Structures are given as C-alpha cells and as structure tokens.
Amino acid sequence: MKKYLLNTLLFAVVCLVFAFALDTILSSRLRKNQNRIFANWNQIYNDTTNYDLVINGSSRAWVQYNPLIIDSILQVNSYNLGIDGSPINRQILKYQKYCNLHKTPKYLIQNIDLGTMDMRYGYEREQFFPYFFYDIDLIKDFDQYENFSFMEKYFPCYRYLGYEDVILEAFFNDNKGHYFDFIYKGYKGHDRVWDGSELAKQDNIECACDTNALKIFVDFLDKVTLEGTKVLFVYAPVYHEVRTKMINEHQMYEMYDTIAARFNIPILDYNDVPMCYDTTYFYNGTHLNRIGAELFTTQLAHDIDSIGFLK
Question: Which of 79, 107, 128, 309 would be a feasible disulfide site paired with 53, CB 3.0-4.6 Å?
C-alpha cells in the first residue's frame, strides 16, 4: 500500500512538473504572438514607449482610430487601446494596465456610443490565458468579470482545455495563423465592404445604460482627471439606419452630456456627418472600414487641433 501511494505521488508530481513546463512554453509563445486576439496585449507588454495620447474604447476604437494619422496631424505619439467586444468595464481595466506598464498619458480620447455603458463577460477570454502565471494582478482584475474557475487559475494548462485553436496557434502557426492581422499601435483597419444583413435583422436598437457600468465609469473619470489627464469624448460615426432604429438615443445623449458637464469634458459628435449616409465607408452598421476609418481619423485630428484640446 505504501509503495502504491509513493508511486501515485511520484506520478502526480511528474504530471504537475510536465504541466508547468508545457504551460510555460505555451504561454511564453503566445506572449510573442501577433494573432489578433493576443497581439494588442503583447504590444502593451513588450513596448516600453510612453505615449502622449491614448484612445480608449471597444472595437469601435480599435478599427476606427488610426494613430498614424493622429500623430502626423497633431504632432503627438498616440496609441490605440481599443479592446474588441468590450464595454467600459473591460476598457477601463485595459487602460489601467497600460498605465501600470507605461506613464499616465497626457490625453485620453474616450470613444462613447450605444454599447459603452454595458457590462461584458467571457468574450474571447482566451486573450488573458498567456498571463495567468506571468501577471497575477491582471488576472485578479479581470477575474471579477470573467469568473475564472479555481482550476483555471491554479492548475497549469487546465485553462487551455477546449481551446485547441489557441494551442495550435502557439505551437504550429508561428504567428501566421488563420486570423493573423497586423496591428499598428493598437489599430487594425479592415479592408471590408458593406454588409447590412445583421442590421436588417434588428427592429430596435437600445443604448446600454447599465447602472454598475455608469458608476465604474464615473469613478474612473474621477481618478483620471485627478491624475491630470485631459479627456475628450468622441462619438465615432455610425451608419444612419442605426440611429433610426435606436429607441433611446435621447437618453444616450443625455447620459453622456451629464457626465461630460460634471468633469468639464468636451465632446465631438460624428453621428451625423456625411459619411454616415454612405455605405462606402462602413462594413456594418457600427464599424467603419479602412477607408472610412482613415477619413474619420483625419477629420477628428483636425477638429481636435481646432478646439485647442492639446493646449
């Protein structure tokens, strides 16, 4: 019996050591990966540059604000922190991690829209997997929303079970996986044409006004403004039919106007500019394609200059 227990213990130790070794190799490779899901986090960790201006938001920041254009017009060094599929709770945590790794920026452009004041859980949670044993603070912060299980947090490799595409990406695709995208300073323009099929299916569109999200946002702005960062709210363009289907657009504007007034934050609104009526510039109702993104960013940069936001 004693020999059996010792053999069992030895087997368990060997398995644990192998799991830790495999986890270390797998996660290390993913922390260098340029796949869409991992690239933006990896750039934040691996880049030591301190940026003057950062853009915060969801995919509507990620695919629509081009730092190259902002830098060239405004003579700043900017970075796009947009996090796909993520409302304000995730956006803030990513901004805070950026500030922990870099200096607090002088300027913050916060994209605001119908989905910002919401709470999101679980979307592409594999983007955090490479950092479980590398940045415990990051996992602790996101755990409040992602609800990582005990096994995922403390047992090596367990979190990768069921994510075969991630494992294949790490070991076999060598940064050239099926969803490889090049990301420039956090930005990825999409060369896609208009597809209105999803918008056509929607009869009503409602702006998110989650109470918890709103409190998180207000607390965030309290902290940011106290640190001396100047904030600008921007409504990036949406295709005009989105607005015609919104059932509480007035509430959205009222909500953001109230917050902006409280913190003395200027707002630039592009929800009714000419491009909002032309599908040439969109690939769906709420996302500009590369052509639209670069046109919008150019107009935005000139408007930022004209209102003296950077002075």
Answer: 107
Residues with Cβ within 8 Å of 29's Cβ and at least 6 positions away in sequence, in order, are 170, 171
Phi, psi of 207 (to 5 degrees): -75, 135
On whether the CB atoms of residues 274 and 299 are closer than 8 A, the answer is: no
Candidate ranges 30-34, 35-39, 99-103; pick with highest mean pLDDT: 99-103
- Tell me the two tokens of residue 150: 């005990």
Domains of the chain: 50-119+181-306 (3.40.50.1110)
What does the alpha-carbon distance between residue 69 and residue 157 come to, in Å, rounded to a whole number? 41
Say what the pTM is.
0.90
Cβ contacts of residue 74 below 8 Å, gap of 6+? Answer: 53, 301, 304, 305, 310
**CA dist., res. 38 & res. 134, Å (int):** 14
Tokens standing for residue 214: 């709103």
Q: Which tens digit of pLDDT belongs to each residue from 62-72?
A: 999 999 999 99
Three-state secondary structure readout of 100-145: HHCCCCCEEEEECCCCCCCCCCCCCHHHHHHHCCCCHHHHHHHHHH
- Pairing type for strands 53-56 and 107-111 reads parallel
43 alpha carbon, distance to own chain's centre: 13
Number of neighbours of residue 13 by Cβ within 10 angstroms? 10
Reported as a single tens digit per residue, the pLDDT across 196-240 is 999 999 999 999 999 999 999 999 999 999 999 999 999 999 999
CA dist 108 and 104 (Å) reads: 10
Residue of 93, 118, 107 whose CA lies nearest to 55:
107
Is the CB of residue 13 less than 8 Å from the CB of residue 19? Answer: no
